[in-house]
Amino acid sequence: MHFQTITLKPPPPFSSPTSYNVSSLQNPRLTTTTLPIFPPIPSNYRPNPNPVFYCNGTSSISDPPNGTLHDCKFRTTALKNFDVATLGNLCVDIVLSVPQLPPPSPPARKAYMDHLAASPPDTRYWEAGGNCNMAIAAARLGLRCVTVGHVGDEIYGRFLQDVLREEGISMVGMSEDNHVIDGSNASYETLLCWVLVDPLQRHGFCSRADFNNEPAFSWMNKLSGEVKMAIKQSKILCCNGYGFDELSPSLIVSAIEYAAEVGTSIFFDPGPRGKSLSTGTPEEQRALDHFLRMSDVLLLTSDEAESLTGIKNPVLAGQELLRKGLRTKWVIVKMGPRGSILITKSSISCAPAFKVSVTDTVGCGDSFVAAVAFGFIHNLPTVNTLAIANAVGAATAMGCGAGRNVATLMQVIELMRASNLNEDDASWDELLDEDLASEKITFLSKTGINGSHNRMNCVDVQKVVSELLPKLEYTWVEGNVSS
């Protein structure tokens, strides 16, 4: 295998054309196909043997000494040439239609998964998963992205590398300095997640990480120089709870401590793993507590916020997390079809969701996080950040599955132009009917009237859209986000 040596350079200056057609620059969404019935068709996948990873429009190929992904080297200065780095949680999703979901008992589920893995499905049903969802959504918004994680030297790993390359996303392999990767050892293989759909459209998930007491890549004990350089060169390090399925708590803690040391902002989305981490091993509990104290931005669902604080009201739960955080600037609570809330130490911003026809919610949360990173980097008003995050999440929900099926920029632009909010005044009044009088509350509204409405400062969605669209449309032409 051949891997690129990346030389990080600032992007060249760009001169905007006087006119352009946004729709002509659209990257078409992948066509949704019917899922195969198990047993799947054997794969004839022939990946590109010379993956090239692009960074700021430049690329090169080098022959590493031992032919592994982990020889990718950075030659760089201290500039933060990446907008976003993701940590761990790189996997391949294999989506299959099955007559029935796997049985509940772990031994039976393990046997079921092994049976699936014995006959790999056609590559049409492979998709990039995990943190790839967030990275792809961010790259489509024009952010410069690098994924930090481990993939194996096999067909699944090469497939994942090709997907990232095609999306313009760089990659740094995780291993210790001078660590030799044993490609024949199953613990070094790319992590697969079997996404199983029964005739009633219910979902089941199987991964080898489900059946191990140790993280999938427990052989990693410390950060390599290349990983540290990638973190140092990124404005944001995005982490989520699923990273604990792959990496040890101590390794994850060392990554966030290093990010804080070198001035990289930390985003953390605990996801469903947050609850199990809070009652997990002492090492997991300490790592979770470290994340909650050290993260600049926390992103949770209302249920996750309640499970971590014991407070049902999402605004009060967010304020409690802010009080406990040492570096926390934003706590964002995702509330699905209702919308989202962003809480700071001095304000509360609320944005109803956009009305869309939902096809699949997989990847919506990751897409939402990508758009929050966009707003954070560009120092957008908080209500504007929520508006674009809701739009990107909703656009992903209109498609089928995640990975390359997450929202495209044109879909986001069209959704924002329509500005069809799912505004439910009674629901929001009930939610905010707490002792919040001392807080500044900003509410995104379709009423078309800016100003005070009851206890809220209403901001017209058309005004917010008019501020966001020029930046999004310009991103199509510029090819990357201005620093």
From TrEMBL:
Pfam family, one: PfkB
Highest taxon, organism lineage: Eukaryota
Region feature (Disordered): 1-25
Domain Carbohydrate kinase PfkB residues, every copy: 123-402
SUPFAM superfamilies per the UniProt record, alphabetical: Ribokinase-like
Cited InterPro entries: PfkB_dom, Ribokinase-like
Bias (Polar residues): 16-25
PANTHER family membership: OS03G0164700 PROTEIN
Protein name: Carbohydrate kinase PfkB domain-containing protein
Taxonomic source organism: Acer yangbiense
